[in-house]
Design a protein that fits this description.
The chain is an alpha/beta fold. Helix content is about 30%, strand content about 20%. Strands 4-3-2-1-5-6-7 form a seven-stranded mixed sheet. Helix 5 links the parallel strand 3 (about 85) and strand 4 (about 105).
């Protein structure tokens, strides 16, 4: 299997970013990814949707995606153009929902500590290597197992099952 490489600029947040901040409850009357993307991170960063570019990466501290178990949160992040999320830790249900929709999430305290908002980074999901292009530094995360790489490449669990 060939390496999965992601590149983008960083949008950095602190600890305990919850699902209500990722996609506020007032927008949960739809499951349309395009609509959800318009309101992604609205309550924590009003300029996120204006500033995010396809491929960008969210970096956060501890317990990212805590709160309710709604799938809308990772869907909104992915639909907004974010290619991955790196954090010290994730809420377990957010972790599962993210992989199920094909949004790669990585745990790397070393990377979170060093990476700053706006840094350009490259992630090799196959090897678990995170390169900070801006600072010319490299960090390690746990590589994705092959079956998870296949789920991500297929755009999520449904795409993987259809194959």
């Amino acid at each position: 299997m060939s390496d999965i490489i992601l590149k983008g600029n960083v949008h950095k947040y602190g600890s305990n970013v919850n699902t209500d901040e990722i996609i506020p409850a007032r927008y949960l009357n739809t499951t349309d990814p395009v609509v959800l993307a318009k309101y992604c991170m609205e309550d924590i960063d009003k300029n996120f949707v204006k500033n995010v570019e396809p491929g960008d990466i969210i970096v956060a501290e501890n317990n990212f995606g805590c709160g309710s178990s709604r799938e809308h949160a990772p869907i909104a992040i992915k639909a907004a153009g974010v290619s991955a999320v790196i954090a010290n830790s994730f809420a377990r249900i957010f972790f599962r929902n993210s992989i199920n929709i094909g949004l790669p999430i990585l745990e790397s305290p070393e990377a979170v500590k060093a990476i700053e908002n706006g840094d350009a980074i490259e992630i090799n999901l196959t090897q678990g290597i995170i390169k900070n292009i801006t600072k010319e530094e490299t960090y390690q995360s746990q590589p994705f197992p092959e079956f998870m790489q296949k789920i991500i490449k297929a755009g999520g669990l449904l795409g993987y099952i259809k194959k």
